[in-house]
Specification:
- With 217 residues, this protein is an alpha+beta fold.
- Helices cover 36% and strands 24% of the residues.
- A hairpin with a 2-residue loop joins strand 5 and strand 6 (115-125).
Length: 217
């Protein structure tokens, strides 16, 4: 039973938490409580510093797949949670589904032969996008989704891409660590601006997505 003094976690409370730099996690899939996280060191991908290697760019251009936006948000979250250890509990899943219904949570999906083969999801607020999780069911598919996301964020006027933490996988794409105070400064600036997640059409050609997202090297 929850402490009576503990506020109910609602989509509105979740958005307010994001607005001050806090995000939720659960200890595991079956956890009944939500843990609020405010790390001293935060991961971000500077939108003018996203890096795509030449080999990844070639694979992105030539591999057989389709990119979808919000076609199966729930399917992406389920796939992200389908691992031995996950912080996505049933309550967290329901909260993000509610945020999606309210227009604040989005998925970028990689489809192959009609199957969901990779993707990511996150939360948009002002000109900030908070990346939550990603998954790959085929080689490089989460990276493909991230290329498509960065192109969309840059086109839509976003100013912050929060990755929460920096993993070796994200570091190869330009993710950097910043202090809590630095992150909050970036967040406050981003929240003072409007952005449009849908400014970029879903049928944008892959070469254009690469050009919009980064300079390859």
């Amino acid at each position: 039973m929850k402490d009576e003094a503990e506020p109910e976690v609602t989509p509105d409370l979740l958005l307010r938490a994001y607005s001050v730099g806090i995000f939720p996690m659960a200890e595991n899939r079956d956890a009944k409580e939500i843990v609020w996280v405010d790390p001293e060191i935060r991961g971000t991908i500077p939108l003018d510093g996203f890096h795509v290697s030449r080999s990844l760019a070639k694979s992105f251009r030539n591999s057989h797949f389709e990119i979808g936006i919000n076609r199966d948000f729930s399917g992406v979250v389920r796939a992200c949670a389908k691992r031995d250890e996950t912080w996505i509990s049933d309550e967290i899943f329901a909260l993000y589904r509610d945020l999606h219904d309210l227009g604040h949570a989005h998925s970028v999906e990689i489809w192959k032969n009609g199957e969901l083969s990779g993707g990511l999801y996150g939360v948009s607020l002002g000109a900030a996008f908070f990346g939550e999780s990603m998954f790959s069911a085929m080689r490089d598919s989460s990276k493909f989704a991230l290329i498509a996301l960065v192109a969309r964020l840059r086109t839509g006027g976003f100013r912050l891409l929060d990755t929460q933490f920096v993993t070796p996988h994200l570091a190869t794409l330009g993710a950097v660590e910043v202090s809590r105070s630095n992150y909050r400064s970036q967040l406050n600036r981003a929240l003072n601006h409007a952005a449009d997640f849908f400014a970029l059409g879903e049928e944008t050609a892959r070469q254009e997505l690469l050009q919009l997202s980064t300079q390859t090297s």
